[in-house]
Amino acid sequence: MATRSQTTESGNVLLPVLPLKDLCLFPEASLAVVVAAPGALRALEIAKRTGSRVLALAQRESPSSPRDLHEMGTIARVTEDTTLPDGGHRVELDGASRARAVSVVGTDVLVAEVTLLDEGDAGDDWGAAVEALARYLHAHAELRSFLDQQRRSPEPMSWVNLACQHLPITATARQKLLESAAPDRCLKISRGLDALLRKEQGA
Q1: What does R_g of the chain's alpha carbons equal in angstroms?
Q2: For the chain, first and last CA: distance in Å?
Q3: Can you give the pLDDT at residue 73?
Q4: For residue 59, which of 28, 77, 35, 92 has the smallest C-alpha distance?
Q5: Residue 68: half-sphere exposure toward Cβ, Cα within 13 Å
Q6: Tens-digit pLDDT profile for residues 90-99
Q7: Backbone angles phi, psi at 120, to 5 degrees
Q8: Among 22, 33, 75, 154, which residue's CB has the most CB atoms within a 10 Å radius?
Q9: Nearest Cα to Cα of residue 150 among 98, 100, 92
Q10: By C-alpha distance, which of 112, 117, 115 is closest to 15?
Q11: 119, 196, 193, 191: which is closest to 156 by C-alpha?
Q12: Beta pairing, strands 89-105 & 72-83
């Protein structure tokens, strides 16, 4: 029987850390990853007993230690867990909310004290991002279909986060977007989308 995640005196949540190599997960997006490292497998075991939640943090280096992880990540729920023939696991992560690791401790398995981050109000900035996304998707029918299938909410920031997750940008660029507040993220993604479209069209 699963138990709830522990909380600290300051109200922060304690969650097992799932390091991501060359990947970044956004809220309201899904990501399939293969987990093979012993510490990461142990984190999955802990998650199963505490509500199936992990803190997905991108690695700076591999193998990972607390100092090699980005502080900003995403709280995610493990929705699927398939054991592979080699003993590794293929897991499906569903991003829930942005979060910051106040501290990360452990050796065999990493555990983070996590504070949730308010997305804030994107104001009118999300409109430009959604319009840029529409222009880009108009030229990429296959991506538009994929995002249509992935859409879970009518909220504009859902589309922005999905764009951040699935567009052809580097993991480093994704991490910088994740670390940006909602208005900045909208502005960056709208500029980035239009730049990608101009490049692809040879403009």
Answers
A1: 17
A2: 58
A3: 96
A4: 35
A5: 15
A6: 999 999 999 9
A7: 75, -175
A8: 75
A9: 92
A10: 112
A11: 119
A12: antiparallel
The length of the chain in residues reads: 203
> CB count, 10 Å around CB of 171?
14
Please count the other Cβ atoms lying within 10 Å of the Cβ belonging to residue 108.
8
Phi–psi pair at 154, nearest 5 degrees: -75, -5
Q: Which amino acid is at 112?
A: A
Cross-strand pairs, 77: 53, 94
Which CATH number is correct for 13-116, 1.10.10.10, 1.10.150.20, 2.30.130.40, 1.20.5.170? 2.30.130.40
| Structure tokens, 19 | 């390091």
Closest C-alpha among 115, 96, 82, 85 to residue 153:
96
How many whole angstroms from its chain centre is CA 95?
6
Task: Kindly state the tokens that stand for 164.
Answer: 């951040």
The one-character DSSP state at 12 is P
Residue 165 near residue 104 (C-beta atoms within 8 A): no
Task: Collapse the DSSP code of 59 into the 3-class scheme (helix H, G, I; strand E, B; otherwise coil) and give the result.
Answer: strand
Give 61-87 pLDDT, tens digit per residue: 766 667 889 999 999 999 999 999 999
Cα separation, 119 vs 73, whole angstroms? 13
